[in-house]
Amino acid sequence: MPIALDxxxxxxxxxxxTTLVRNVAKYHQSCRLLFNNTKLERVxxxxxxPSTSRATDEPRSKRRKSADIPKVECFFCEEEDVISNLxxxxxxxxxxxxxQCARTLNDGKLLAKLSGGDVVALEVKYHLRCLQKxxxxxxxxxxxxxxxxxxxxxxxxxxxxxxxxxxxIMDSNVTNTEAAPVVFRLADLASLYKLRxxxxxxxxxxxxxxxxxxxxxxxxxxxxxxxxxxDVLLAFKxxx
Length: 240
Description:
Blueprint: H1 16-22, H2 29-33, H3 37-68, E1 71-73, E2 80-82, E3 87-88, H4 92-104, H5 108-114, E4 125-126, H6 128-150, H7 157-174, E5 183-185, H8 186-199, H9 209-219, E6 223-228, E7 231-236
Helix pairs in contact: 4-5, 7-8
C-alpha cells in the first residue's frame, strides 16, 4: 500500500464502517486516490505470488520423494514394484513347492530361474497374487490329469500296475545284499509304471511323475524323496 495504516485505529469495537458512520468521517479526495481499487488489486496479486509458488513446489517435492522410493522386480511377473508390495522368499518349503510346480507344469523359464539357487540365496521377491496364480495353475493341471485318468477306459488297470510297482520297490529293498542302500530314480519308476500299463493294454497311459511320487510316498511311508540336480531320488529313511 502507498502509506502505512493501522486499521485497528479506526475500529472502536463495532467494525470500521460503523465507527466511520457514527463519527461522520470525511476524507480528502487526494487521500482517497491513494486507496483506489487498481492499486489494491496490484497489492493482492503481489502477495498471492509466493503462495502460488509454494503450491507449485509442493507437488514437485512429493513427486521427487515418490521417484526416490526403490523398486524391485517380481520373481514371477518380472514387473517392478515398491518393496512394500512384495513378499520375500525365506523358507525351504517355498523353495521345494516352487520347484515342484515348475516340474509339474514343465515351466522351462521358471526351472531356469530356480537352477541358480534356492529362494533364500536368490533373495526372491514376489507378488502374493503371482505366487497364488502359479499354485492355481498347478492345481488346475493336476485336476485335469485326474479327470483324464478317471475317464480312461483302462482306469481299472492303473491300480494293478501301481501295486506291482510297490511290490518291486519293497522286494528290491529286502533282497538288497550290497553295502550301498537302494536308491530309485523317480524317472525310472515312472518308466516302469508306464511300460507295465502298456503291457496290460492301456494305450498311451496318462501318467505324471509328480503325482506318482505322491502316491508312492503315501503308500510307503518309509520312503523319502530327495532332489539331486534335475532328478528326484527315492530312498528308504533307514538307509539315509
